[in-house]
Structures are given as C-alpha cells and as structure tokens.
Design brief:
It holds the Pfam family HATPase_c_4. InterPro entries: RecG_C_sf, Schlafen_AlbA_2_dom, Schlafen_AlbA_2_dom_sf. The protein has 490 residues and is α+β, with helices and mostly antiparallel strands. It folds into four domains: 159 residues, Methyltransferase, Cobalt-precorrin-4 Transmethylase, Domain 2; 71 residues, no CATH class; 169 residues, 2-Layer Sandwich (Heat Shock Protein 90), CATH 3.30.565; 77 residues, Arc Repressor Mutant, subunit A. The chain is 35% helix and 20% strand. The strands form seven sheets. A six-stranded mixed β-sheet has the order 14-13-17-18-20-19, covered by helices on one side. Strands 1-2-7-6 form a four-stranded mixed β-sheet. The chain has a three-stranded antiparallel β-sheet with strand order 5-8-9. Strand 6 and strand 7 form a beta hairpin.
Length: 490
C-alpha cells in the first residue's frame, strides 16, 4: 500500500536511524559515502537481495551519506537520478542487467539538513538474483559469487521454496491503533478458539505469531497480505492488489451471462470475516427440492451446502495470488453454479480427488483449517463428490480455462438426461471415490449412484464400458471380472 508523501518521508527517516543504530553492517545493510559505480551497485543489489532472503528479511538497504565505521551522517554528492552508465540512466542500466527483475528504489532523504540516498532492495523471491548472469552474496564486507559457496546456495534455495504472497506487506508504518482499526482481531480470536487477551500486548503477540502482522521501523507495524486477506474489516483499506482478491458473486436469471443479473455481491471483508456470511447468502438464494423418502418429505437445497462450502474454500486457498486484478468468482445460473479461481492448478483436475494436497498459500490454508472454514487437508474434494453422489446430481466438472480453474456444479437431472460425457465422468469419479475409501466400484454401486433401477443393469454396464474405453478405469482383477473396477491410475 502506498503511503502519503509526508508519512513516507517520516518512515524513511526513522528507517535510516534504525539502520544506523545497528552495531555494525549486516549482510543486508551497506553504508557508503559517495561511491556510485554502476557495476558495483549492480553487484551489491544481487548480493544484498540474496543475503536478505537468507537472513529472513523482506528488504536489504544501501545508504549513501553515512560513514561506514561509526555510522555518522556525513552527507553524499551521489545523485542516482542524474548518474549515467554507458549512456543510460543508472536505474535503467542496472535494471536491465538484473535477472530476475526486482523493484529496487532510490530515495533522497533529508536528515537534519544532510542529504542522504537510500536504496531499498527487495529480498530474492523466486530465484537467486543475478547481475550480468552471475549471482552474488554478501559475506562480511566481501561480495563473492554465490556459486563459490554451494552450502549457502543450497540454503538460499531452501529459503526460496516456501516464499509466498502471504508474507508480503499489505500496509506499512501503522500505529498500533491503526492495526486494530483495520483488522477484525476479535474475529481472529473467536474463529481460532483462543480467548481474547485482556491487554494490547497479548493481542499483538498472537497476531505476530500467526504472521498477520510484522514489526516495521521504530514502534510501527506492518499488516501482511495474509492478515489483510483474512481479517480486513474493509479490503479497500489495503489498496487494489488486495481489494481485487475479494470474492465476487453474481446470480443470473437464466442459463447464460447475457441474461439479467438478479443478485450481485462484491466481497468487501476479509475471507475469514466474510466466509460464513457468503455461504449463508448463497444458500438462501437457492431453491429447495422436495425429496420424498419412504416415510417423510424433506426439503433439500438445490446444491449440497458442504459442496458449496468446500469448493469456495478451495478457490480461496488454491488461487494464484500473484495474478493481479483477479480474485475468486462465483456465478449462479438457473441450471448450474460455477466457481472460478485464478491460477493454473498444481495438479491435473482429474486427479483432484486422490493427489496429495498442494497449495500455493500454505499459511492461508492452515489458518482456514484451524478456523474450521474448510475440511482437513486432502479431504475437501472427497466431501464434494460424496455429497453430489448422495444427492444424485450430475458429476461436477473440474476443468482448466486459460490460467484459471473452474468447477461446475449442475442442478438435478435424471440419468436419462445426462450426456454420455457426463455419465463417463460420473463413473470415473465414483470409481475414484470408492478407491480412496478402500472399496471398489461395481455395477451395483454405479446403479445406486446414477439412480438406475436394478432391472436396467445393462445401462450401467454400457457406462462402465464407455469409461473403460476412455482409459479412465480398469478392472480391479483382470482374472475376476466381478471383482469390480478401480481408476486407471490405481
């Protein structure tokens, strides 16, 4: 989130004083007076960016105008906006020689009448930062090649693997009052089952432990992307990059997007604060079907509540947060519901049911499970398929669409009205669900799942044959045809 100029200048001055207060240069802080050599700056950015990630820092810094030995402010004549390198503006020249690109930033600082220059360098995020195709590292006052220190290279890669959007900063340089005003902290304690501390320090200790906030310079605080996306009272408080991750819901009067919009809701609160309200809102819009059982009538929603809940939670957890301007989208049509989240899936959609769970947003997923907003790891899709089968709905369709994942839940339809493709998909999902539950699909279990009468067993046999021909299932025992069927990957 961008600070206003006055606040930004104040934060920068405090940051410089915090850096000067360090007893000595660290691997992610460098002090200089006037040295403004372009290649030297490029190597420093590579070295300090990589060193910052190793030191679990979000940023590294170079300050011109501070004496190295005693950190006294002496001022500098370095002017990065004027400096040229090989005929190009310095910033452009350095940026063109870095891979992957990072958003380093020069700032001029007025420190009690002395002119300083602060260079802020983001820590390496996805790969070691290279200058002229060589990655560097800071060790003491030396800047060696990273490849000359394989043990540190391995350590750096291990640090890079878990780096996630969640750890980024959504708002910075906030007072304690500002943090508590922007986050629904009472909701955090309530949903995680923790008693609300009776003092401010206890509240901040808990928020800090779950990485919802982090310390900034002086006595100020940052709110992380994780804290904002889960507990924001208003997502708009955190700028477009967070606000546009809000969940959008649109209901149409017919079967297509050209039909009139009957209801629309754009998520304004964090996921934790708004999740249950969203599920209840959608559930309240759904028509009810009257199920006539053996002894009583029962009204059921058009779609199972557990399926809606799990699919929305999955969309939140598995979305690619780095795709700008896009968030989860829920669309309700007269004949189906579509739930879309940005980002290509980490596993093939036809293996959602059985593959070990993988999430881009592990901290988000962990907190969602702790708050019981979704099922335990790896069981959500099982619950969805089970609920769909219990309601004898057409099989859900899990598919990739461009750089997004879309799941379609279909309104009730008899087996006779299903397409051949839907029948095959239902057979495959049924076999997979049986297999992960330690059982095997048979003609009888498939008939029950599809609502086929016993006297029409041949219809189930034709579906099984078509699914075999599609190489989605196989006999559990080739020598015993009645042993049942399992997914082809089993």
């Amino acid at each position: 989130m961008t600070l206003d100029p006055v606040m930004s200048a104040e934060r920068t001055r405090r940051l410089v004083d915090d850096l000067r207060a360090k007893p000595a240069e660290t691997t992610w802080i460098e002090f200089k007076e006037n040295n403004a050599d372009g290649p030297l700056i490029g190597k420093l950015i590579s070295a300090l960016s990589n060193a910052a990630r190793l030191a679990d820092q979000h940023y590294a810094y170079v300050v011109w105008g501070v004496r190295d030995g005693d950190h006294a402010v002496v001022g500098t004549s370095f002017e990065p906006t004027v400096k040229k390198e090989k005929g190009q503006p310095l910033e452009l020249w350095v940026a063109n020689h870095l891979q992957p690109g990072i958003e380093f930033r020069f700032e001029e600082v007025d420190h009690d009448g002395q002119r300083l220059i602060l260079l802020t360098i983001p820590a390496a995020a996805t790969a070691p930062v290279e200058f002229d195709r060589t990655a560097y590292l800071r060790i003491g006052s030396a800047t060696p090649r990273l490849s000359d220190h394989p043990e540190r290279l391995r350590a750096l890669w291990s640090k890079l693997q878990p780096y996630a959007w969640e750890t980024g900063v959504a708002a910075q340089f906030l007072s304690g009052d500002d943090v508590l005003a922007r986050l629904n902290y009472a909701n955090y304690f309530d949903l995680t089952g923790q008693p609300l501390p009776d003092n401010r320090q206890g509240i901040f200790d808990k928020l800090l432990a779950d990485r919802l906030i982090q310390k900034d310079v002086s006595d100020r605080w940052n709110i992380t992307n994780l804290g904002a996306i889960l507990y924001a009272k208003k997502l708009s408080d955190f700028g477009p990059s967070v606000e546009r991750k809000g969940v959008r819901f649109v209901a149409y009067a017919g079967t297509g997007r050209a039909d009139d919009v009957s209801h629309r809701q754009d998520g304004q609160r964090g996921y934790a604060a708004g999740f249950q309200g969203l599920v209840d809102y959608i559930d309240g819009l759904l028509p009810r079907n009257e199920l006539i059982g053996k002894a009583f009538r029962e009204e059921r929603p058009l779609y199972p509540s557990i399926a809606i809940r799990e699919l929305i939670a999955n969309a939140l957890i598995h979305q690619d947060m780095t795709i700008t301007g896009a968030g989860p989208l829920i669309e309700l049509f007269s004949d189906r519901m579509e739930i879309t989240n940005p980002g290509a899936p980490l596993v093939s959609p036809d293996r959602f049911l059985d593959s070990p769970p993988r999430s881009r947003n592990e901290a988000l997923a962990s907190l969602m499970r702790r708050m019981k907003l979704c099922e335990e790891q790896g069981t959500g899709i099982d619950k969805v398929i089970s609920a769909v089968e219990l309601h004898q709905l057409p099989p859900p369709d899990f598919r990739m669409e461009g750089d997004a994942v879309r799941v379609v839940l279909f309104a009730p339809r008899r087996f006779a009205d299903m397409t051949p493709e839907e029948a095959v998909r239902a057979c495959y999902q049924h076999a997979a669900l049986k297999y992960v539950g330690g059982q095997k699909m048979t003609n009888a279990t498939l008939r029950e799942r599809l609502g086929i009468d016993d006297q029409n067993a041949a219809q189930a046999s034709r579906v099984i044959r078509a699914t075999l021909d599609a190489d989605l299932i196989r006999p559990a025992d080739a020598e015993r045809p009645r042993a049942g069927y399992v997914p082809s990957w089993a």
